[in-house]
Amino acid sequence: MNDLHPRLTAARPDLADARLRGKVEAARFVAGTPKQVVAGAAPLRRDPRGDAALDTELLHGETVLVFEETAEGWAWVKLDSDGYVGWCPSEALGDVGAAPTHRVRTLRTFVYPGPSIKLAPSMLVSMNARVAVTAADEHFARTDAGFIYARHLAPLDVAEPDWVGVAEGFLGTPYLWGGRTSIGLDCSALVQMAMTAAGLPCPRDTDMQEAIVGTDLGVNDLTGLQRGDLLFWKGHVAIARGDGTMIHANGHHMDTVVEPIDGAVDRIARAGLAVTSVRRP
């Protein structure tokens, strides 16, 4: 994949990441200021407007480099985890705090101001959000964000054993273009979130995933697909479950569903799209 992929390159004619000096042309180069996502999640938009296209989302605890902030409250950033570049609300960001020690392992969980489920939650955070745990008992973990039910967290070095099983946990999650949480997500985010939970690196979008994830198996035979094989179409990806079915978040159902591979391939082909590749992570 091109290291100057437009969605991953913080470069405009007027401003660019200082690390790109000599690779791109810009009127000004800046090093960027490290910031951390302090909101439960935050949109990353194409332009600095609330009605601009949602390209992806930032998760709580992720870090970014901020290259510009506007008077209207928008920050132009590059996400450290997958490199995505875009505009997010400045109010969603704060100073970088203690290094995260744990991630959210459930689809979502609440953050409380104290160690009691009877308190009004202060925030909702989603799978793979990152927090720094400072103390814990059998019920609650004290984190830099607040108190979180301890069983909903896992140490960063503990990976889920079955990433496809993680994806299956998102069944019923509404489809949302650019979404990256269990409140709403798109096809490539389903793959990225599940693989991340299993400690497997994965880029954000389908074209990036098709370029570098796993081994290309070709498209001549779809009968021998194994659990975890990825099926790609132009702009879409699905996950084989090893039993003749696949799971995917998709705009046809506006949902995250399981359906037979043969039927889905035929349905999508009638819409004019053929399988472009199959890859095995």
TrEMBL record:
InterPro entries documented for this protein: NLP_P60_dom, Papain-like_cys_pep_sf, PG_Endopeptidase_C40, SH3-like_dom_sf, SH3_16
The UniProt record lists the keyword Hydrolase: yes
Single Gene Ontology MF annotation: cysteine-type peptidase activity
PROSITE patterns documented for this protein: NLPC_P60
Pfam families the record matches: NLPC_P60 (PF00877), SH3_16 (PF18348)
Keywords per UniProt: Hydrolase, Protease, Thiol protease
NlpC/P60 domain ranges (all copies): 157-281
GO biological process: proteolysis
Family under the similarity heading: Belongs to the peptidase C40 family.
PANTHER family named in the record: NLP_P60 DOMAIN-CONTAINING PROTEIN-RELATED, PEPTIDOGLYCAN DL-ENDOPEPTIDASE CWLO
Protein name in UniProt: C40 family peptidase
